[in-house]
């Protein structure tokens, strides 16, 4: 029996070291050399070098002076990131959307869907440009800035990928807004 057990234990130990230690270290090393910014979380820093967030994960912005992101089912906590899993007929979903629409409503215009529905992960850092432009009047009024200036910021921060729709990163847009207000 020991004759059969020894090779099994040796194989388990060897494979544990290879797949649990060596492989992750090699992949991490390659990522650090080839893609250091992405391997370290795609962190966004301000002019003083302070970390403001990640370009890949949404964070909560409150107050009328900021562009608001999509709602998050997990309240922007990365540990509990997920969709709400509420069906379209669920009264709780309808109540949450109505509440979010009321808080985002500007001048009687319909609120863009992206401002009242969560993304699949609950941490989507981007908005469609239309959802960002919808917020321009509120932000311009709160910051006493011309609406045209705020609109230009949205247009300057709109990313148009080769494939897929145009998007605006809310963190980058709010950082540009903060710079413009100075």
From TrEMBL:
Pfam families assigned to the protein according to its UniProt record, in alphabetical order: KdpC (PF02669)
Keyword RNA-binding on entry: no
Domain of life, per lineage: Bacteria
InterPro entries assigned to the protein according to its UniProt record, in alphabetical order: KdpC (IPR003820)
Membrane topology note: Single-pass membrane protein
Localization annotation: Cell membrane
Single GO term (MF): ATP binding
Keywords carried by this UniProt record: ATP-binding, Cell membrane, Hydrolase, Ion transport, Membrane, Nucleotide-binding, Potassium, Potassium transport, Transmembrane, Transmembrane helix, Transport
One GO CC term on file: plasma membrane
TM ranges: none
Main location: membrane
Binding partners and assembly: The system is composed of three essential subunits: KdpA, KdpB and KdpC.
Family in the record: Belongs to the KdpC family.
Entry function: Part of the high-affinity ATP-driven potassium transport (or Kdp) system, which catalyzes the hydrolysis of ATP coupled with the electrogenic transport of potassium into the cytoplasm. This subunit acts as a catalytic chaperone that increases the ATP-binding affinity of the ATP-hydrolyzing subunit KdpB by the formation of a transient KdpB/KdpC/ATP ternary complex.
NCBIfam families assigned to the protein according to its UniProt record, in alphabetical order: kdpC, PRK00315.1
Protein name per UniProt: Potassium-transporting ATPase KdpC subunit
Lineage: Bacteria, Pseudomonadati, Pseudomonadota, Gammaproteobacteria, Pseudomonadales
């Amino acid at each position: 029996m020991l004759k059969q057990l020894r090779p099994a234990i040796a194989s388990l130990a060897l494979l544990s070291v290879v797949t649990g230690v060596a492989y992750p270290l090699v992949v991490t090393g390659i990522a650090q050399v080839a893609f250091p910014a992405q391997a370290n979380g795609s962190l966004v820093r301000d002019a003083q070098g302070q970390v403001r967030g990640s370009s890949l994960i949404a964070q909560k912005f409150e107050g009328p002076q900021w562009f608001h992101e999509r709602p998050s089912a997990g309240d922007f906590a990365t540990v509990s990131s997920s969709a709400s899993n509420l069906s379209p007929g669920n009264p709780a979903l309808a109540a949450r959307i109505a509440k979010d629409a009321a808080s985002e409503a500007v001048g009687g215009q319909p609120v863009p869907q992206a401002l009242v529905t969560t993304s699949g992960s609950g941490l989507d850092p981007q908005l469609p440009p239309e959802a960002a432009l919808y917020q321009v009047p509120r932000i311009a009024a709160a910051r006493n800035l011309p609406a045209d200036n705020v609109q230009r910021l949205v247009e300057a921060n709109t990313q148009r990928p080769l494939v897929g729709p145009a998007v605006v990163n809310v963190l980058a847009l709010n950082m540009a807004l903060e710079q413009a207000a100075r």
